[in-house]
Every structure is written in structure tokens, then in C-alpha cells.
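Page 42, continued from yesterday. The earlier attempt failed because a stray header line got pasted into the input along with the sequence. Redoing it now with the clean sequence only.
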Amino acid sequence: MSSDRLCRRKKLKVDSGQEIMLSLDKVVEFRDNDGLELENGDWVRIKSAKEDVIDIIAKNNEHHSLLAWHLGNRHLAIQVVSENILRILADHVIAKMLEGLEAKIEYKKEVFNPEFGAYGSHHH
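This time it went through. C-alpha cells are written below.
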């Protein structure tokens, strides 16, 4: 889940079934396909879980900017998927607002990699 991407100390289970204890000096935000080097020199690849998301499809660049502004004004985490597609975590209230702004909405189960933002990792 997106709330699990911030880690400092956590027990993790790798695909082989082996459990490892993650213990870092500071909180790190992991993204899909990041790698961790273990003390023994082995590498572990981070695989993000798929989440319920909404892909928001804009009609053009101006519409894309308008939609991004409305999402940012609500301090929502967003992922820029492409030139005309934004992704957010599924939220039916926000989806209704976006439909009112004439955005095309697609509900999906996908990996969510939100943008870090201009000020880095900032959380309320």
C-alpha cells in the first residue's frame, strides 16, 4: 500500500519466504523496482502492491493543467502517468468532482507511484 512506502525500520518477507529486518538511519520512500543491498551482498527488488486507483484522462494540455490544479489544491498525492493522464488513489468524492470538470475517469488496480513534489517528502 502507498502508506507502506515510507520505511525506516520494518520486517519484510521476500519472495523466497526469507524474512529480513530493514533498519535504516532515516525514513526512506521506496518506489516500485527500487533495490536494497543486504548485508550479505544480495540484492532485493522492491515490488509495489497494486492499489485501487483512478486514472484521470484529460481532453488536452489546458484541461490537464486545470485537473492537476484542482487535485493539488486538495493536497492529493498524484502520479503523472503520461501527457494527458494523472493517477490518484481511488476516492469516489474526488471522482465526482473530476467528472464535473469533464474528465474521463477509469478505475483500475495498479501500482501507485506519486510524485515527490517540489519540497521533497512532505507529509502532514
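Notes: Residues 61-73 form the longest helix (13 residues).
Reminder to self: strip header lines before submitting.
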